[in-house]
Amino acid sequence: MGNSGSAVKVCTDHQGGINWLSLSPDGQRLLTGSEDGTARLWSTADSQCHGHFQGHESYITFCHLENEAAFTCSADHTIRKWDVVTGQCLAIYRGHTSIVNRILVAKDYLFSGSYDRTARCWSVDKEKQIQEFRGHRNCVLTLAHYSSRDVLEEEEEEEEEEEEKVSRDLLVTGSTDCTVKVWWVSSGRCYQTLLGHTGAVLCLILDAPNRELFSGSTDYTIRTWNIVTGEQLKVFKEHQGSVICLELVNRHLYSGSADRTVKCWFVDTGERIQTYKAHKHSVSTLKYHAGILFTGSGDACARAFNSRSGVLQKIFRGHKFIINCIQVHNELLYTASHDGTLRIWDIRGICKRNKRRLKKERSVQGRSSQKGSLSRLFNNKVGCMVQQENGE
C-alpha cells in the first residue's frame, strides 16, 4: 500500500497557512504566499529562505513567480510586484474592490480575478489597468490565457473584427456563477459564454493547439469545450464530489475531487481509464511528473501513485492540515500546507524505480512491435503467394 516518507527539510518561517507555492521557470526559486500577509522566496539549491516580501495589509491568496520578479495578490484588494533580488516592492496594482483570488502573467500582461465579479488586465511594467472584464454575476475564481493565433486558421482569422486584429489575446474566466467566459483582451468584449455547468467553476485547463478547454465544477463534472465555436464536446460524469483540480498530460486528463479520488481520463474518447483511491479527504492539488502522479489532500498527506497502474507507491506524512499546493523539481517534492510549513521530500527512489519500470515496458513493447512486424511481413508474403497461385 506504499511506504511512509519523512521530509528532508521542514521550513517553518511563515506565521500562517501557506495558500500557494510557485516555481520559477528556470527552477532556481520557489515562492510561497501565506495567511500571514507575506510571501517568501526559497532557493531550490539550498532550500533556504532568501527573500521576505512584506507590505500586504491582509492574507495572500495566490502568488506567481517569474525569473526576475514575483507577483502576489491579496484579500486587501491589491496585487504587488516584487524584485526577487532586493525584495523591494516594484508596483502596486489597485482597482479591485474585493479579494483578489487569482493572478496570471502572460507576455506583458498581468491578469487578475476577484470576488468583485470582475477580471482585470494590467500592464506588467506600469501600475496601470489596461482592461476590465465585466459580465460575471459572481466571483471570478480561475483564469487561462491564449492567443487566437494558436487556435484559428488563416481564413478564420480574416473573419475577425478589425478591432480584435490589433491584439489577438484572449482571457478565459471561470466563475461561481456556473459559467466560463472568453474575452477579447484588446476590447474587453465577451467573445463566448460557455453554458452547461450547474455549479461553480473551480478549475480550468487549456489545450490551445487542440482548441480545447477543460473546466471542473462543484456540479461533480468536468466539461470540455471547443474554444473557437463554444461547443460543449464532452461531459465527464463519474466523480461523486466537486472537481477541485485538473492536470493535462499527453491527452490524459487527471482530475482531483472532494470525493477523495483522482481519476484519469483519455481525452479523445472520454473514457475513464484509472481511479486513484487512497485519500481520506478531498484531493486539493495534483502534479504529474515522469510517470508518477503526486497528490495533496485535506487529510494532510501527499501521495505518489504509479500513473498507469494506479498503485500507491508512497505516502508523505508530517503536515498537520490540508496541503494546498505541490511542486516537483530535481527529484524533490515540495508541499505547502495550511499548517504554515513548506516541506521538502526526497523522491529519488520513486523516480529511479519508475525509470526502470518505463525502460522495461519500452523494451517489452519493442519486442512485441518487432514480433508484430515479422508477423505482418510473413502474412503479407503468404497473401502474395496465395494470390499468385490463384492467378490474381
From TrEMBL:
Task: Say yes or no: keyword Repeat present.
Answer: yes
User: Which sequence ranges are marked TM in the entry?
Assistant: none
The WD repeat ranges on this chain:
11-43, 93-132, 170-193, 194-235, 236-275, 316-348
Record flagged with keyword Magnesium: no
Which UniProt keywords are present, listed alphabetically?
Answer: Repeat, WD repeat
Give the superkingdom in one word.
Answer: Eukaryota
Q: Where, if anywhere, are coiled coils annotated?
A: none
Q: Name one Pfam family in it.
A: WD40
Q: Which PANTHER family match?
A: PTHR44489, WD REPEAT DOMAIN 86
- The name of this protein is WDR86 protein
- Origin species: Toxostoma redivivum (California thrasher)
Which gene underlies this protein?
A: Wdr86
